[in-house]
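Two proteins, back to back. First:
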Amino acid sequence: MFGKRQRIEIKNTEQIALMREAGVVVATTLETLRQAAVPGVTTADLDAIARRVIAEHNATPSFLGYHGFPAVICTSVNSAVVHGIPDDTVLRDGDLLSIDCGAIVQGWHGDAALTVPIGTVSDDVARLSEVTREAMWAGLRQARAGNRLSDIGHAIENVIRGAGSYGVVEEYVGHGIGSQMHMYPSVPNYGRPGEGPTLEVGMALAIEPMATLGSATVRVLDDEWTVATDDDSTAAHWEHTVAITADGPWVLTALEEIRL
């Protein structure tokens, strides 16, 4: 997994500050979408809102046109794990919606995702989302200088496995981020601790666990983007961009100032 040696981009203080600006745009957009995601709204409606909010902040969407992706955000409903394309799908009471968003400020990226219950969801669906969120925070806390890359995935997997019989999606993982949205290294959401590159001040990572109520096996749908669970079980996805600083992990895509 970690055998190929590549250089991880190291950012200076000014570059991390620009990533924080992009992160605030992402956080603001996601909070606006969280409030707008109610029964009767379509995922295309949410995409239009995201496009407006990002433009109002003089930022550029990371996703629009990326390898041909046709929208500003990814909207993944119920059994869709990631990369869902906004369309005329109407959100209904009981749905679980994951929203992924990226923005660019002066060439520097922020990337985050959250999972939103639509109306009232079942207890097991609500718990799935909360466990996935808790796993993300466990991974973020490991993003500190001196740790190894696999310490992040190990912490994530421990939370999810320890909470019940959830599936941990392995085919899709976190990633380095900075002057590009997806950069080396990949950040798996599973594995043994103490492996891979040593984390250093100036690195930035997008940490994004994905968990399911059933099988962790996934497939790509006919639109060639949406990734869904093989058994149609519900999935959740949470993500933050984090910078590794001398003072510990700095979550760049939160509305509030969070240093762990």
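And the second protein:
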Amino acid sequence: MRHLLLVAAATALVAAAPPPVKYATPPSVIAESRPGEWQAIPADDLMLIDLKNGQRIVVQLAPLFAPVHVANIRALARSGYWQGAAIYRVQDNYVAQWGNNDSDKPLPASVVKKPPAEYHRALRGLRITPLGSSDSYAPAVGYTAGWPVAYDAKAGTANLPHCYASVGVGRDLSPDTGMGGELYAAIGHGPRSLDRVIAVVGRVVSGIEHMASLPRGTEALGFYKERTSDVPIANVRLASMLPEAERPRFEYLKDKSASFARWLRVKKNRQDEFYIRPAGGVDLCNALVPVRPAK
């Protein structure tokens, strides 16, 4: 009888025990976010790079940080400038670069051939959500309007950092700033030493794997030795150039939303089953603003 009572008591304790704690993960926070916490990306800010093999790369442009370069890029896309262009440089753990590779193809009349050095902009007017973790390349980092940002309150400047999938403008030695015809995407560990040295004009929001998985160039700086190794580009267009029904749509999680704040806390302190020790912080390039296709 005593044995039966002990078994019954143990069973009652198990039944009364709370269910196992389900720790939040970055994907679970995104899944539980509300539709109103997401911001649509304008069609004129989405550049579609269609490779001849059928793969598509989508770049979100950043006119908030590089307005002259972005205006050039839009003009080049609308004119068909990149038809016949190619990815001709793929440097391991660094960048994939594309364009017409120093061709003499005529430029649209509206293109500014020598843009200003849009390597940073005024901090004034930006609403920053601080990351809350230290940074090796800037006094402070955080987020604004859906972009990761490095900033210096004392100098009053802000800039887009070079993180994985960031898109920058190829240029010659200073004072050249590049007009936007040659572009690259970071395909390795964020090359933050390029911050405030080159104009960052956007980020790949879809298809970065198509660039990151390309064969590496064998020449200096990752250039392909033979032109037959180049990866041909079929077309480059803005999403706004397509009929409404054919436009891809993307949205980003607002950095002032409750779900973003929760997502950032989870990124800093993973506590799900695999993580045995919360980090207590996070690097800016490891906590990029979530972007997803819009429904």
